[in-house]
């Protein structure tokens, strides 16, 4: 069964450092998403991506964040200068088309020290 | 602005009984609703969905009910099993954008 994969599973970084979280969505999917979940809190939408551009982003997704689909298979989330409050689980998701369920990756746990 | 709300953060149910998880939404433009199940340290997994043209969708032990006039949906699990213990998120969509509730942690007691 096809699945969304994410690497690394756990990333530890120092405050102010840049991190890149990687996702490989399901191959025939067209819409891609990043979410985060701070420990004990809700799943929060960050950004959606379609046709090689951002289609929607939340208030959380400020200038410190960027997304890219560099090679047609990977979908990356970059945080330029991490803050302590960026510590969270980051989930990538993809869907084939509108009105379909999202398939989520297993998540990357980001710890900012 | 919380467009999708799950007002019960937790629920405990005896094995074999029915679990009912509730979800409310505010945006009348939502027309597709989903339930996801999430275990610790894993990504959410899709459970069941319903479109706004229906008021009920059933898949094995799982049934989702939609009340559009009340902007309310619920997930029924019957009979509940210990393996159902997880956090359940409802989500609403108006197309390719999804809005998640805060989740309800279900514990099924053997």
Q: How is this fold's topology laid out?
A:
The complex is a heterodimer of chains A (113) and B (110).
Chain A: E1 5-7, E2 10-13, E3 19-24, E4 31-37, E5 43-50, E6 53-57, E7 65-68, E8 75-79, E9 88-95, E10 103-104, E11 108-112
Parallel strand pairs in A: 2-11
Antiparallel strand pairs in A: 1-3, 3-8, 4-5, 4-9, 5-6, 7-8, 9-10, 9-11
Chain B: E1 4-5, E2 10-14, E3 19-25, E4 32-38, E5 45-51, E6 56-59, E7 62-67, E8 72-77, E9 86-93, E10 98-100, E11 104-109
Parallel strand pairs in B: 2-11
Antiparallel strand pairs in B: 1-3, 3-8, 4-5, 4-9, 6-7, 7-8, 9-10, 9-11
Return the string of H and E elements of chain B.
EEEEEEEEEEE
| Class derived from helix and strand content of chain A | mainly beta
Succession of helices and strands of chain A:
EEEEEEEEEEE
**Estimated structural class of chain B:** mainly beta
Question: What proportion of the residues of chain A is helical, as a percent range?
Answer: under 10%
Number of strands of chain B: 11
Tell me what you see in this structure.
The complex is a heterodimer of chains A (113) and B (110). Chain A has 113 residues and is an all-beta fold. Chain A is built from no helices and eleven strands. In chain A, strands 2, 4, 5, 6, 9, 10 and 11 form a seven-stranded mixed beta sheet that branches. Chain A has a four-stranded antiparallel beta sheet with strand order 1-3-8-7, with no helix packed on it. In chain A, strand 7 and strand 8 (75-79) form a beta hairpin. Chain A starts with a strand and ends with a strand. By secondary structure, chain B is an all-beta fold. The mean pLDDT of chain B is 93. The chains are: A mainly beta (113), B mainly beta (110). Chain A binds chain B through residues 4, 6, 31, 33, 35, 41-45, 48, 50, 55-56, 91, 93, 95, 97-99, 101-107, 109, and chain B through 32, 34, 36, 41-46, 49, 51, 89, 91, 93, 95-103.
